[in-house]
Amino acid sequence: IVAKSGETPVLTRPDASQNVLEIGTGGGARYLCLRGFELTGGDIALRLHDCQNVWIDQCHVHDCPQNAITANSHDTTALYFTRNEVHSTGGTGEGFYIGGNDGVPVASRCVLALNHVYDTGGFQGDGIEVKQGSWGNWIVENTVHDTPYPCILVYGTGGRAPNVIERNVCWNSGDNVMQVQGEALVRNNALFGGAIAFHSGDHQGQTRDLVVVHNTFVNAGLCVNLASWGARAGMVFANNAAYSQAGTAIQFGSGSSGVTFTGNVVRGPVFGVSSGYVSGAGLSDFTAVSWDGSSRDVTPSAASTLVGAASDAWVTLDQLDGALRTPPYATGAAQAD
Fold it and tell me: How far lies 50's CA from each of 55, 114, 280, in Å?
């Protein structure tokens, strides 16, 4: 179901007694694409129920009294959300609400890519939230900003395939810019300007099997909070840039026993670990970065401390813009030109 070339069909309703669009009720939806629509008004703008292989592409979803897009009433698999613009939500306020609390229900093998999510509202207002037990999902190249709760919030998978969170750019959260519980690969993200840039701790499950590599975290206050990492299985924090203007760069709330911690560059104090990092010069290490995220070019400058600081054992093949990473390998999300 695709918009006519040059036209933007609008789906709406004048009150909040029903959602604007429901997909997958009365027997389920399979192999459906919705592209190029504007959805506004109603209660929830778009709610997906019993859905598999459903693709929501290039839609503009905005100004709804509740969440913008939800998939939290049935188990779902192979949902694709790409190139959508999502903003101005109410109620709990999530831009994307994928999966349910405590693994009931579960979303698996979904893709959230190239979406622009901003100005979420309500009394929570997460940008993209993937709930506990949802697994094998790919959250990639989204731009998320100006959210009261985390720009991106991902729980654990309950022992199933990890989620992958990469090449996202997020800024200006009233909470943690990105929060990830565990069982995930977090790489090549650039996060700026929140209460905390990156937070990881127990939530609806325990923190475990979390690999955080080649990200750039920049914040005025506390930059990285690794709240419950000590003595947990499979914990890696490598080749990340963590720069705080006037606070702590990295803190471990429960110690760093068993954590692989290497190749990191920081500005500000580090608590809970005594090696695996060097001190950077400040924002002059980047081409054009501000503490609040209004400037976000995290490419290392010519004389940057980041250049050559990465641990070869944890180098990723690509970088923030998807280009190949080449030696000398730089710490952080981007490689020097």
Answer: 13, 24, 50
* C-alpha R_g of the chain: 20
**Distances 107 to 66, 97, 101, 160 between C-alpha atoms, Å:** 20, 10, 11, 12
The answer, as to whether pTM is greater than 0.85, is yes
Cα–Cα nearest to 298, from 192, 187, 186, 146: 192
* CA triple 291-297-299, angle to 5 deg: 115
pLDDT tens by residue, 8-25: 999 999 999 999 999 999
Strand order of the β-sheet with 85-87 is 10-13, 38-41, 60-62, 85-87, 116-118, 143-147, 169-173, 190-192, 216-219, 241-244, 264-267, 277-279
pLDDT in tens, 42-70: 999 999 999 999 999 999 999 999 999 99
The residue behind tokens 């997958």 is 24
**pLDDT score of 337:** 80
CA distance 160 to 174: 31
